[in-house]
């Protein structure tokens, strides 16, 4: 069986959904599970809605109506007004109506997951309805009953044994009857609350299903020809990799290459399932095949740009040396706030650490760190990571920016720039 993942860009409008069905029709006769993300930039819009709701802002209904109008406009381009998909989508949005009428709960991450998850619940309703509309037999599956997570909202940790057991119990029989369409990015807790797996987590969902079902391959359909040596939105003259090793793909995604979610590759590597990254606009193109046995040749360095970074410098309040006790206290605070460290450096009197800036988490951490340390920080920074680099290439990348932190190993150079 095959697992396909269609991301937001591939289903951003009615033409995208029509294209998706054409891609799927090429695989008629094969068992197929399709993981779909929210349409276009819906997740960003739902994040805005969540913030407006928690802050009880006046524009909450404006933001919500824009999200609804966007989806109903796509529906009206695909179906006659009497089609049941209109009701299915309206009923899904009712969950938001109920939530935003109430006073906000005080756990931001919990609210976030209950609201933001609507994007995938709605997109899969529309995709599933359209596949059936064109004569393909397809079933909508609520992923929250299959991908079981703990209750770390916004970063649900998958309970693999329970997840695989449920997937293996039900999905093979469903696949024999037709296509299965389900939501990326979402999970469910044992109390039936919705969790999300981290932004851009739909690739990871596809990998979980593939690993549990021992799929032949996973294909993620993207708006790029495959995996390139750098993000084409930031760099000209990129080159595509026809093949890539699991290890290189893990390294690239770990450092922030946004093309694949970082947790995706490992379960596929463990189960020896190839990951194909292909352009949805040219489904017959070979794209990039990620597998164990890729030929390793780097015509150009691999460049990864991670924006919206904050660099924090800590020193002890009594100006003593930074000790293991200090570091242990600092790491505990990072862990408690679910903040992943991207780069760090220790000197005699200070500890410098760079991570993704996320306002609510940063404010919390900052307040806690201030109690024990002198804290200085700089935000709006960028980490440039270069793999398989030549020293002379680094200068051109920095351009006229200031380097605040630099680390070089044999294979990888990393620089925090302003
Ligand atoms: N090394 C890279 N190769 C290809 N695309 C990349 C790379 N790094 C970042 N990207 C970006 O990833 C985007 C595709 O990933 P993403 O937006 O997550 O897709 P989707 O959400 O549709 O699954 C591309 O539009 C491209 O800008
Ligand atoms: N919709 C979610 C999950 C996801 O994976 O989306 P995409 O496949 O469009 O990156 C997000 O935007 O984070």
TrEMBL record:
| Residues in Aspartate/glutamate/uridylate kinase domain copies | 2-277
Please verify whether the record's keywords include Transmembrane helix: no
Q: Which reaction does it catalyse?
A: L-aspartate + ATP = 4-phospho-L-aspartate + ADP
The entry assigns this protein to a family as follows: Belongs to the aspartokinase family.
Q: Any idea what this protein is called?
A: Aspartokinase
Under the heading NCBIfam families, the entry gives: asp_kinases (TIGR00657)
Q: Which Gene3D superfamilies match?
A: 3.30.70.260, Acetylglutamate kinase-like, Aspartokinase, catalytic domain
Q: Which UniProt keywords apply?
A: Amino-acid biosynthesis, ATP-binding, Kinase, Nucleotide-binding, Transferase
Pfam families, sorted: AA_kinase
Enzyme Commission no: 2.7.2.4
Question: Does Amino-acid biosynthesis appear among the keywords?
Answer: yes
Q: In which pathway does it act?
A: Amino-acid biosynthesis; L-methionine biosynthesis via de novo pathway; L-homoserine from L-aspartate: step 1/3; Amino-acid biosynthesis; L-threonine biosynthesis; L-threonine from L-aspartate: step 1/5; Amino-acid biosynthesis; L-lysine biosynthesis via DAP pathway; (S)-tetrahydrodipicolinate from L-aspartate: step 1/4
One example of the protein's molecular function in GO is:
aspartate kinase activity
Give the GO cellular component terms, alphabetically: cytosol
């Amino acid at each position: 069986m095959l697992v396909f993942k269609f991301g937001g860009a591939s289903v951003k409008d009615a033409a995208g959904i029509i294209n998706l069905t054409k891609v799927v029709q090429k695989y008629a006769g094969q068992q197929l599970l399709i993981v779909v993300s929210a349409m276009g930039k819906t997740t960003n819009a739902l994040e805005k809605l969540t913030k407006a709701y928690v802050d009880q802002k006046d524009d909450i209904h404006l933001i919500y109506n824009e999200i609804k109008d966007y989806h109903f406009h796509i529906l009206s381009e695909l179906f006659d007004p009497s089609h049941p998909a209109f009701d299915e989508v309206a009923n899904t949005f009712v969950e938001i109506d109920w939530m935003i009428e109430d006073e906000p709960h005080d756990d931001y991450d919990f609210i976030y997951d209950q609201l933001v998850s609507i994007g995938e619940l709605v997109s899969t309703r529309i995709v599933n309805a359209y596949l059936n509309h064109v004569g393909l037999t397809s079933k909508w599956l609520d992923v929250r009953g299959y991908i079981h997570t703990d209750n770390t909202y916004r970063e649900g940790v998958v309970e693999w044994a329970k997840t695989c057991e449920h997937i293996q119990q039900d999905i093979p029989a469903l696949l024999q009857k037709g296509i299965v369409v389900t939501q990326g990015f979402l999970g469910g807790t044992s109390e039936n609350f919705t969790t999300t797996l981290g932004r851009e987590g739909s690739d990871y969902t596809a990998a979980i299903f593939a690993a549990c079902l021992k799929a032949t391959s996973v294909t993620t359909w993207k708006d790029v020809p495959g995996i390139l040596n750098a993000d084409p939105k930031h760099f000209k003259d990129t080159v595509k990799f026809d093949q890539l090793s699991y290890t290189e793909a893990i390294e690239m995604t770990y450092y922030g290459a946004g093309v694949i979610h970082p947790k995706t590759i490992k379960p596929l590597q463990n189960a020896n399932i190839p990951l194909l990254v292909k352009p949805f606009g040219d489904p017959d193109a070979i794209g990039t095949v990620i597998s164990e046995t890729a030929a390793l040749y780097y015509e150009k360095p691999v460049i990864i740009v991670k924006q919206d970074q904050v660099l924090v410098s800590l020193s002890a309040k009594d100006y003593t040396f930074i000790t293991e006790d200090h570091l242990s206290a600092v790491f505990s605070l990072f862990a408690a706030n679910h903040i992943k460290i991207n780069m760090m450096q220790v000197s005699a009197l200070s500890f410098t650490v760079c991570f993704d800036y996320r306002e609510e988490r940063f404010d919390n951490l900052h307040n806690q760190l201030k109690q024990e340390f002198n804290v200085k920080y700089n935000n709006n920074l960028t980490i440039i990571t270069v793999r398989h680099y030549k020293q002379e290439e680094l200068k051109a990348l920095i351009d006229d920016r200031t380097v605040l932190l630099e680390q070089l190993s044999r294979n990888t150079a990393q620089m925090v720039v302003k």
